[in-house]
Write a structure and sequence with these properties.
CATH class of the largest domain: Alpha Beta
Helix content: 25-40%
CATH topology of the largest domain: phage-related protein like fold
Number of helices: 7
Structural class: alpha/beta
Largest sheet: 6 strands, mixed
Length: 330
């Protein structure tokens, strides 16, 4: 059988310890670098068990398997540093006035967000983990597709949980950061064509003005030409795109009404379907990876299965809540 993680399962001899080690290495690579599909594909094509595979049996990975089934738009918002080769237990954000920090949660619980203030906020790297059971009969009976599907689902759930933690930080903003739905910049009446888009343009513009006004004297090296992010629920995609592309005049070549550089990002992970967020990315929106998703396995003799546990360590914080705002749509 040809698969997504192992190109040809028939070439794997699980009685050979060296081949089992190679198999484990392939799975670990799959777990730790899901965001780089090209790298993953190349590594799997180069992976060998009993010598190089003939080119004719190298199967292109199915789209389902090479597409990330988790949301990583938050990586464009937060400045996420790589601490995987360090001995650090966390990191600090300096010159903090008001911040939000998430902490680890037990399985089934929601992420908790803590508010902090002062000259410094310390962000710890907490461990997040889970486990899966691989039935030994799947190996004995060559049910390799079950093995791959289980590992793919496990990986996607881990990284989805990580994304959710960062989005929870954003949604924890106080209502003092809210920007109300602004009046039409074209003085259009309700029900008129373009009325909603016109009010949304005014709201996004007011949001950008508010953020720049709050942080302009903080030494962040930002200005009117600095790119903004706009994080919105996917259900608002068409509406937001209509606002961002709205023209001053009704003909091609006319300038856009919104004169800020705003990059839209869409997600399914926000709890509200009516609010969206506008802000300056990076700067004091921080995250850190201490340990990539790492697998550990042991035989469970009572269940006749291979129990595989996965652990990762990371942390995140919003070091300045004035760096972003929440926008209303009604």
């Amino acid at each position: 059988m040809k698969g997504a993680i192992i190109k040809d399962w028939n070439k794997v001899d699980f009685s050979d310890r060296k081949q089992v080690e190679k198999f484990a290495g392939a799975v670990q690579h799959f777990m730790s670098v899901p965001e780089n599909d090209k790298m993953f594909k190349a590594a799997m094509q180069a992976f060998t068990m009993k010598g190089d595979f003939p080119s004719e049996i190298l199967q292109v990975l199915e789209k389902y398997h090479i597409t990330s089934h988790y949301d990583n738009a938050y990586e464009q918002i937060f400045d996420i540093k790589d601490f995987t080769g360090s001995k650090e237990s966390g990191f600090d954000i300096l010159d903090v006035q008001s911040s939000l920090v998430f902490r680890k949660v037990k399985a089934g619980d929601e992420v908790e967000v803590y508010k902090a203030s002062g000259a410094k906020t310390s962000v710890s790297f907490d461990s997040y983990g889970g486990a899966m059971g691989l039935d030994k009969t799947w190996f004995d009976d060559s049910k390799y597709w079950n093995i791959e599907d289980t590992m793919i689902e496990f990986r996607n759930k881990f990284y989805s949980g990580k994304a959710s933690a960062f989005y929870t930080l954003i949604e924890a903003l106080a209502t003092t950061n809210d920007v109300t739905w602004q009046t039409s910049i074209d003085t259009l009446a309700a029900g008129t064509d373009g009325y909603t888009a016109s009010r949304d343009v005014a709201t996004i513009r007011a949001a950008c003005d508010a953020v720049l006004g709050r942080i302009k004297d903080k030494g962040y090296n930002v200005g009117p030409n600095t790119p903004f992010f706009l994080l919105a629920p996917n259900s608002l995609r068409n509406r937001i795109n209509a606002a961002l592309t709205r023209l001053n005049q009704g003909f091609g070549g006319s300038s856009k009404q919104l004169d800020y550089n705003v990059v839209p990002l869409y997600t399914l992970m926000l709890s509200s379907s009516s609010d969206y967020y506008v802000g300056i990315p990076k700067v004091k929106l921080k995250g850190g990876n201490r340990q990539d998703l790492t697998l550990y396995n042991a035989m469970n003799i009572l269940r006749n299965s291979e129990t595989v546990a996965g652990w990762g360590r990371y942390g995140g914080a919003i070091g300045d809540t004035e760096q972003l705002v929440r926008c209303e749509t009604s």
